[in-house]
Write a structure and sequence with these properties.
The complex is a heterotrimer of chains A (about 170), B (about 120) and C (about 350). Chain A is mainly α. Chain A is about 75% helix and about 0% strand. In chain B, helix 3 packs antiparallel against helix 4. The model of chain B has no long low-confidence stretch (mean pLDDT about 80). Chain C is mostly helical and about 350 residues long. Chain C has two domains: about 60 residues; about 280 residues, no CATH class. The model of chain C has no long low-confidence stretch (mean pLDDT about 80). Chain C has a two-stranded antiparallel ribbon. Chain C has a two-stranded antiparallel ribbon with strand order 3-4. Classes of the chains: A mainly alpha (about 170), B mainly alpha (about 120), C mainly alpha (about 350). At the B-C interface, helix 1, helix 3 and helix 4 of B face helix 1, helix 3, helix 4, helix 5 and helix 10 of C.
Chain lengths: ~170, ~120, ~350
């Protein structure tokens, strides 16, 4: 699968390069915008993993929703351009220790994991109805709890708006 | 398999290439005679007042928050809708519970006035 | 393997050519119809009946200076129209414009990409379209542009919900995400005579989807991102030359795609009722079906145009109210009622 490898590295490159811009860029709008390509690259990787529904979900929710929210958040901030994104370096030693520990753990997991070398499924055909069936049978409780979580978030959102009708 | 997605990759890449070519072609063919007046921001003939990058209404932010929450709900509905016939009555009842919980949320947000726009 | 690339490149190039020709036609049609409805003449000089007016306009735009305001962000200013056009051109990929056709001894499906997620691909790419407008508005550093961009993103995400929910009704009826399967599902007959088009099975979803499609394409009565009386030209106020032209091109190709999707989801796609009893050869039938599809799409586009010149623009609060307080509950109710009806039958 020569093609597969090329496409994989292409998407990996898009994801990593734009993620690097998100972190490095001093302009906060550039950061938010680069995130668009990060999400897009990850969606491409999902497609390569034969998880097309997840890829579409990634685009619909992360790109279509969360990133719009982020952009609005960035634009809501006054004078985004002149905000200096650099922060002073303080407490170097504890930071180095924590980062080293975290990186060590991640790399350890990375090495010890037995990575599957091929997609878990060899076809797209029935994945979406299967997800539907699993959600409503085996994973029924998490699914219903998800709706409660969403409800809580909705109530929280209404509290942010904080504009009770005075006539009521 | 993966081959079914190749046309998608080609189409997206093709669209981007088309856009870049058109923009570059215009830059190349068009004249370039910048003047101060021409390059100033258009504000119906007035001198531009401050910058456009001011703060704007938090309502836009609210819409985005509400959108994400309902978008997640809609995404959950797709697999159910496709497998609707297999899941039958039990699936319908569980999904109704799911939707009704979110409708309560919608109603609450509505009563709280978060959907008002004025 | 190479074949797949070649075929999809050829299909894409053909598609772009068709879009460009249709845009020329639709642009002409829109200007002629608007002129007719306002008792004017409209373009009638360039080519027969003024048909080539839009082509000349494109050439003119190509030769215009590309002005980027000093205070604008040049890079994002350049990128925004590219995003818009790339999104607009890629959404069509999953729409079938005919049944299979016999070509060079093999069955070819008449769609650019036949993917499993089908209609969801279209939805997710459409949701990328928000960025072209928002970033154009932000990069211009112009108050009108910024407001236009913000309005467009809030409007598009609001109506995306109703759009997604109306699609769910169709999915429940047909049980698949693939658009070609959805069309095939509509080729049977209800009670032996009425074509089983989803407009008859899902009338409420049809209405909510069509309204949402108008909002998603930023067409009147939902063209608030570029409401001339208040925002000059909205998000593309600071755009000149072909960059402006690309936004226009994106708008028209979005109209084409939206019409094609409405036809596919609700109006039977390429299905011409009773055509299978005509006794045509398979190849002739395929050609007839492609023509049927084109005619249906053209009629829906005509509807788009006539609506634009008939209905006044919404106010922004009315638009948001309609989206959140009418369309969303109605679309959710439609899903629940559809489920109930399907279970009872």
């Amino acid at each position: 699968m020569d093609l597969y490898i090329i496409v994989f590295y292409l998407f990996a490159l898009i994801t990593l390069a734009s993620a690097a811009i998100v972190v490095i860029s001093k302009n906060i709008v550039y950061s938010a915008f680069a995130l668009l390509f990060t999400f897009f690259g990850v969606a491409g990787l999902y497609v390569l993993l034969m998880a097309d529904f997840i890829a579409v979900t990634q685009l619909l929710i992360y790109v279509g929703g969360i990133l719009v929210l982020l952009l609005f958040g960035v634009m809501l901030t006054t004078k985004v351009i002149r905000v200096d994104m650099r922060t002073a370096t303080v407490r170097t030693f504890p930071a180095v220790v924590i980062v080293a520990a975290l990186a060590g753990t991640l790399i350890g997991i990375f090495w010890s994991t037995d990575w599957p070398q091929s997609p878990a499924s060899d076809g797209f055909e029935r994945t979406i109805p299967q997800i539907g069936e699993m959600l409503l049978t085996s994973y029924l409780l998490p699914f219903e709890i998800a709706s409660v979580v969403l409800l809580v978030a909705l109530i929280g959102a209404a509290m942010i708006a904080r504009r009770e009708r005075k006539a009521l | 398999m993966l081959e079914t997605y190749i046309p998608i990759f080609v189409v997206i890449a093709g669209g981007i290439v088309f856009g870049i070519v058109m923009v570059k072609l215009n830059e190349w063919l068009g004249p370039r005679r910048p003047t101060d007046e021409k390059l100033s921001t258009y504000e119906s003939g007035m001198e531009p007042v401050r910058t456009a990058r001011e703060r704007f209404s938090v309502k836009f932010y609210m819409v985005a928050v509400l959108f994400i929450l309902f978008d997640i709900e809609v995404v959950f509905l797709y697999p159910w809708a496709v497998a609707f016939k297999e899941l039958g009555v039990a699936g319908y009842i569980t999904m109704t519970v799911f939707i009704v919980i979110l409708l309560i949320g919608l109603f609450y947000v509505w009563r709280k006035g978060a959907l008002e726009w004025d | 393997m190479d074949n797949v690339y070649l075929v999809s490149v050829v299909k894409f190039v053909m598609y772009v050519a068709i879009v460009l020709i249709s845009v020329i036609l639709i642009g002409w049609l829109e200007r002629r119809i608007s002129a007719f409805m306002q008792n004017r003449t409209g373009p009638n000089r360039v080519g027969p009946f003024g048909l080539l007016q839009i082509l000349i306009d494109v050439v003119k735009l190509l030769l215009k200076e590309d002005i980027v305001p000093k205070s604008a962000n040049k890079r994002i200013h350049d990128l925004a129209p590219i995003i818009s056009i790339a999104v607009a051109l890629s959404t069509f990929a999953v729409v079938p414009f005919g049944n299979t056709i016999e070509m060079f001894g093999s069955e070819v499906k008449l769609m650019i990409a036949d993917v499993n997620v089908g209609i969801l691909y279209m939805l997710s790419i459409t949701s990328l379209g928000v960025y072209g407008l928002t970033l154009a508005g932000w990069a211009s550093n112009n108050k009108y542009s910024l407001l236009g961009g913000l309005r467009s993103s809030a409007q598009m995400i609001s109506y995306e919900l109703s759009m997604g929910l109306s699609i769910i009704g169709v999915l429940m009826v047909s049980g698949t995400l693939r658009l070609d399967q959805i069309v095939l599902h509509q080729t049977s007959y209800l009670g032996g005579w009425l074509p089983a088009w989803n407009i008859f099975l899902q009338p409420v979803a049809f209405i909510t989807f069509a309204v949402a499609a108008f909002a998603e394409t930023n067409r009147l009565p939902f063209d608030l991102p570029e409401a001339e009386p208040e925002l000059v030209a909205g998000y593309h106020t600071e755009y000149t030359g072909l960059k402006f032209g690309l936004f226009m091109l994106a708008e028209y190709s979005n109209v084409i795609t939206a019409s094609a999707v409405i036809v596919t989801l609700f109006l039977g796609g390429w299905h011409l009722p009773y055509a299978e009893y005509l006794g045509l050869s398979p190849f002739g039938l395929s050609i007839l079906q492609i023509l049927t599809f084109c005619v249906k799409v053209a009629l829906v586009i005509l509807f788009f145009i006539v609506v634009r010149w008939t209905i006044p623009r919404f106010r922004y609060d009315q638009l948001m109210n309609l989206g959140w307080k009418v369309m969303l509950p109605v679309a959710i109710a439609n899903v629940l009622v559809t489920g109930l009806v399907l279970l009872v039958i």
